Amino acid sequence: MDCTLQIFLDDRWVDCTEIELNGGLCQWNHLVEYAIEHPDAPVSLAEPVDLKIREARPLPAFLYDLVPQGAGRRFLLGELELPDGADADFPLIRAGAFNPVGRIRVAEAVEYFEAHVERHPDARGLPGLRIDDVVVRSEEFKERLFLHGMLGTGTTGVQGAAPKYLLTRDRAGLLHGDAVLPDADATQHFIAKLPRGNRPADEKVLRNEAAYMRVAAALDIRTHPELPTLHGDVLLIPRFDRVARNGQVARLHQESVASILGLTGFDLRPSLFEVVSGIRKVVSDPAAETLEFIKRDVLNLTMRNTDNHARNTALQLVEGRVQLTPLFDFAPMYLDPELIPRALRWYHPDTRIELTDWADVLAALRVPDRERRMLAGELRRFAGQIERLPDTMAEQGVDHDIIEFLTQYVDTQVRQLKALQPLEA
Ligand SMILES: Nc1ncnc2c1ncn2[C@@H]1O[C@H](COP(=O)(O)OP(=O)(O)OP(=O)(O)O)[C@@H](O)[C@H]1O
Ligand SMILES: [Mg+2]
Fold it and tell me: Which atom number of ligand 1 is nearest to the Cα of residue 162?
């Protein structure tokens, strides 16, 4: 089984990489023209653009960013009549990766999508929807999204457990399924995220995700300039991998930390020290991104966003620079009925023992001492913002019972951060 990847460059899709899967061995290589003309536009930040033939078992890590998950995965498995499991990943990419987040797609999946649209001639030229139609999820909405290439109850182009739709706003302010609206008509791109399930806690988590993002923005964490907005139980999240300007859409490279670290599959748990060193290898400013990552983790610990798995942190290439994307999927996950313990932790690189104090984490970080001092100083300053967090959370609309529950975690973090010494100064 094989497939061809395409990358969006200079306003068009360019064939870039050929992939072949044979008896559990996957081989891939870049196409000559792409490799020569676009050495600075990699398919993965972890792999240079060259003409080598590479091998992996079962699949190269970067392909897992394209595998449909959640509702989109379940729908496509039904369409393809396949049982779920690791063997389904490649067929799912070949059918479902026609419009993923980022700027890589699969040519065969585009054909699959076009065949779907052709079987539904009514899909052409339909007017867009208002956000209220999405909130009510009327029959018309469901039918429209099916026709608009969402291929069922969830989209195949964006990962994660919660049901989502990729929507694009046109010039009249109406929303369309992302894959059907021509770039020339697009003004803004969104992910519409629904509660994970229909229990009250699911709705509470999503409602507070909007407030959590406002809190992160107030603490100067990197966030998209336009924050998510809540409409009924739908969180409308502006996308940061797309920029619509002057009738053109730029697609930015986006890649999960799991892919950067070469992790295959969906449930691998690297130590946060490995995550940091993986990030530092590819970003333009390692010191700044390390600080940003650690501040995000202080917030994860304080605000109990326990679901910090390796696909909930990603990198982007924007204006020639590689950096962490704006924050996403930041929510009071401790409330999730599925009881999600903190996924990734600081396991000491040598002893593998979990470190739970920032002084120990900073001491074990493999960074120059000058940088360690900078980190300690910045985190001590951050302690003041964490101390004021209960007020900030109240101002930004976090539920009161959540704020109350978090008091103990605020205290712990403030104590640890204030105690950071100007190490080895
Ligand atoms: N604003 C955004 N712009 C671009 N891509 C985004 C944005 N927000 C999320 N994503 C991408 O969409 C994926 C799914 O989003 P998100 O993590 O919020 O969903 P989820 O269902 O809550 O995930 P999980 O299974 O981790 O709980 C992310 O892993 C990321 O790749
Ligand atoms: Mg997620």
Answer: 21
